[in-house]
Design a protein that fits this description.
With about 180 residues, the protein is of the alpha/beta class. It is built from five helices and six strands. The chain has one domain: P-loop containing nucleotide triphosphate hydrolases (Rossmann fold, 3-Layer(aba) Sandwich). It holds the Pfam family AAA.
């Protein structure tokens, strides 16, 4: 993951799949954030020409973690990345994966990644990704077991796609 710190400056939970959107934003719409935009320039090229990177054996990050207080442009930056690369944009909230029943969240993760793979190259944005985090293992209560399975499925999906598939996962969090 490429982590980027940000300074100041819904979809239906039953389906969890947002319709693929074409982002109307570009980096011209993002005020400031010069350093963050420069960091993402290589990702734009990767989304446009993944074969070029695979041919030379370059390792492109499978994802980006944007961190910063609410209202600092994390979502806009993710949309602008998709707009610059002219690829579909998917947005979900991490809380939409968390369910009472074990296995439901993991199933939603699989469904989301299946949709992304069908429409690759694309940008998959997960807001509030920290909801899925925490400690794995230990306490085996139903809620923690569900979170563990959901997080494990997310990590499995991210490990499972090849660079040539052209899927960039962007996670956003308000926690440092």
């Amino acid at each position: 993951f490429l982590a980027i710190h940000r300074e100041s400056g819904k979809l239906n939970s039953k389906s969890l799949i947002t319709s693929k959107q074409k982002s109307l934003f570009t980096f011209k719409d993002v005020a400031g954030n010069t350093e963050e935009k420069e960091e993402m320039t290589e990702l734009i090229d990767f989304l446009k020409q993944p074969q070029k990177y695979e041919t030379i054996g370059a390792a492109i990050p499978r994802g980006v973690l944007l961190e910063g207080p609410p209202g600092t442009g994390k979502t806009l930056l993710a949309k602008a990345l998709a707009g610059e690369a002219n690829v579909p944009f998917y947005a979900v909230s991490g809380s939409e994966f968390v369910e009472m029943y074990v296995g439901v969240g993991a199933s939603r993760v699989r469904k989301l990644f299946k949709e992304a793979k069908l429409n690759a190259p694309c940008v998959l944005f997960i807001d509030e990704i920290d909801v899925l985090g925490g400690r794995r293992g230990g306490n085996s209560s139903g809620g923690n077991q569900e979170k563990d399975q959901t997080l494990n499925q997310l990590l499995t999906e991210m490990d499972g796609f090849t660079p040539s598939q052209g899927i960039i996962v962007i996670g956003a969090t308000n926690r440092a």
